[in-house]
UniProtKB/TrEMBL annotation, chains A, B:
Protein's UniProt name: LacI family DNA-binding transcriptional regulator
PROSITE patterns: HTH_LACI_1, HTH_LACI_2
Organism: Actinoplanes sandaracinus
Superkingdom assignment: Bacteria
Domain HTH lacI-type: residue ranges: 5-59
DNA-binding found in the keyword field: yes
Lineage, top ranks: Bacteria, Bacillati, Actinomycetota, Actinomycetes, Micromonosporales
Keywords: DNA-binding, Transcription, Transcription regulation
SMART domains, A to Z: HTH_LACI
SUPFAM superfamilies from the UniProt entry: lambda repressor-like DNA-binding domains, Periplasmic binding protein-like I
UniProt xrefs under Gene3D superfamilies: 3.40.50.2300, lambda repressor-like DNA-binding domains
Amino acid sequence: MRREVTLRDVAELAGVSSRTVSNVVNGYANVTERTRERVQRAVDELGYRPNVLARNLAQGRSGQIAVVVPYLDTPYFSELLQSVIRAARARGYNVLIDQTDGDPEHERAFIAHGSRRLLFDGVIFSPLGLDQQALADRDPALPLVVLGERTSDGGFDHVGIDDVTASRQATDHLLDLGRQRIAAIGDQPYATGEAAQRRTRGFRLAHQARGLVPREDLIISTPRFNRPDGAQAMAHLLDLAEPPDAVFCYSDLVALGAIRTIVSRGLRVPEDVAVIGYDDIEDGAYSNPTVTTISPDKEMIATTAVDRLLLRIASDTPPPGLEMRAPHKLIIRESTAGRTTATA
Amino acid sequence: MRREVTLRDVAELAGVSSRTVSNVVNGYANVTERTRERVQRAVDELGYRPNVLARNLAQGRSGQIAVVVPYLDTPYFSELLQSVIRAARARGYNVLIDQTDGDPEHERAFIAHGSRRLLFDGVIFSPLGLDQQALADRDPALPLVVLGERTSDGGFDHVGIDDVTASRQATDHLLDLGRQRIAAIGDQPYATGEAAQRRTRGFRLAHQARGLVPREDLIISTPRFNRPDGAQAMAHLLDLAEPPDAVFCYSDLVALGAIRTIVSRGLRVPEDVAVIGYDDIEDGAYSNPTVTTISPDKEMIATTAVDRLLLRIASDTPPPGLEMRAPHKLIIRESTAGRTTATA
DNA sequence: GTGAAAGCGCTAACAT
DNA sequence: ATGTTAGCGCTTTCAC
């Protein structure tokens, strides 16, 4: 690679010190209009580009934040990522994206202080489940914002929607339709399944508020929240002696998988089984039938997370960990309301 | 942030020079087992972590490659990205992901030599369409591998599948089913739509080989390859006096949008209209109906692209630009074959 | 407002 | 096999 034009080259040509060039390049105040112009001309003439690597080293920061998600090809995450990238870029930060494949070991490595530590100034972390070991091992100096999962650890921030309330609303919607046997797909009754458990809690609360008790055999757990899981769980439910007439799925993918199974058995959605999802991914707006869902405000989640992380990065004394709630809403579509009019 | 442990600290504690520590840390040869051990102990004791930023500067490389895609939330790209990340990581590289939002200006900025240039050692670039201006402005010193689009410029490599043949196979499949009026959705009859045009060419070739001529009013162009585009184009087709009985869609998303429109009009897939897509995204395997599609070998595309890029990065004299073809296959599902048996 | 010079922490050419 | 040392290109404290 040919030698790059350096700050010093520019300084020499402009007849000033490198300090002054640095000032001009970074838009600092104390420069006369005349020198600024002279320097600028030299910059243009030489085609000077600041060396980010050198700047990073000198400043001890990288200008990058990492966003860690379990799976990149899960629509919810890729849609969220889009918003995060936009927000970060608008604030002058690059985004380094990584997926953990849901591997707890990998998740741990990311927030522990490893060799890659200096590649990013902070991390927005969307864990599959919050592994306590990972939290214990984490580098306390690493600015961190966690998405989705909640926690009591005060060392970082958390951004998410109110899962319990949202799940309760979803269940209420099914109950309002007069459904009698409502199933839930996606529970995760183990340590790292906190988010799932909050949804189950909302599911139960909705029943209790009406003096009902959900049938335990209708609450199905799944390892992940994807289509195959949904398809399989639904198959199991339909094989029951008294199959459900409605299903609350903990993600839209699960809902799509479930719908697939229902339809392939020759049953109809929502006539035979009403289905509601969670996440509001684009797929659900174009599927047959379209999927009723809980829609978290992803844009808000993203900007909140980025802003909070940058604040944390900028602070000398780390601010206390904060719980932040983004809004959500219920979007009613065909999988519960049925087909309405023919659309264009 | 507290002061980091440096190489020199380790050297001091171990009673050796920093050079030796560097050798140990990087696993170089010339170190006695005894010194290696002593150094290692010092490293462990101090909890030393090499500073990536400093290493990058000293080596003049970043250990990162950038992958640039138009849209992150398009399943085809996010599925492809997964494979790229895996491949790059296995070879010791980080992946910096960026999306251009399909903005040609943005695409240009990425391969032109900008200030971010040194953040990555090379770029895997998946343009929406290959803008000639962007190519002209590109930094000739930047190792570059382009996905999807083809080109005559010899300065970089290209990896993709044989679009013409694949499209011809897709069309053949519809013709084999005895369909008479086959439409195509996704043509892009302008400079940056080369990939789309290759598909149209395959579409025409399949007809010609049987002495047929496709109806021109059944070839619909769309600005993008997403669901809304597919839905809208299909609506237009169904409004024709003689609507098609089969559609070749240039992406699975387009196919899903088209199917959505067909079904919402009360028509059946594939009985009234058979639909075939392109890309083999997961959605298409779980939709109702499931979508017949052209499946490019994404894993192969990803590893080929990464390997080739790393080779290019490592070379002093850049190798000549290469055209590389990844395999593809036709996957037949319900949208053309109809529903078979009830699935679990 | 501008200059001189000391790092940032590492790598690698050169010397021993 | 190991030590010495000069960069990598920038930022920034300290003088003037």
